Amino acid sequence: MTIRAEEKNGFIETIVADDGPGIAAEHLPHVFERFYRVDKARSRELGGTGLGLSIVKHIVQSHTGRVWPRASLKKEARSISRCPAHHSPVVD
To answer: What is the pTM of this model?
Structure first.
């Protein structure tokens, strides 16, 4: 897994990439939904509950940011988040 963060035009952009099997384009609209798993045949005993990216989405949104996946079938998956560099989180 690689993580890269840099400031761009007043935003912190974070890119997280892993060396997993990648994500097909048809799954991209759903990967941030709670309990969504790309590989439905994979059991929970092998890891993954489908909550990780949903949690990421809510954390980023609480900082008035946004997050999106990148399609790649080249043995990796990427997510990119962008948040304002100077912002207080929203507290409900």
So the answer is: 0.73
